[in-house]
What does this fold into?
Amino acid sequence: MLAMGIKLVFAIHIQMKYTLYREQQLACDIARAWSFFSSPQNLAQITPKDMGFVVVSEFNGEEIVKGMVIDYLVSPIFRIPLKWKTKITQVEKNKSFTDFQLKGPYRFWNHFHEFIPNEKGVLMKDTVVYELPFGILGTIAHSIFVKKKLDQIFDYRYEILEELFNRNKKV
It folds into this structure.
């Protein structure tokens, strides 16, 4: 067939969505938890320093609202700065909010933050559904380093939040 001038082209296009789920008990009331997590300025504080994470958008202490767009710079690999733009697509005050990537390193990024008051304070839950670009290459990158990097970021965040909310603190 090839001798007859017919070109056969095989394209492998694999798209995979992944889910990262974490939860953490915070020894504080819902007002304190919401105040901290609904302020974009606090994101840099809970992100590893080697990520070079900077909130570029200017905020004057206001908390997030549905429709808010937030611009960041982040250097996830080789210290190469990338622009990241998210939009707050859902807010239920003192309960949950969702940020969705409009532009950035992922093909798809949807991060749902949930806050559940309980007798110990607040149970915070994070559910991130994400997809990498570049098809099969993105799938390979995920298995080699992206999953590990995200785990490191959320492990760091866990430790910082333990320090801020749980070490020698009571509700």
Remarks:
- Helices lie at 30-37, 135-166.
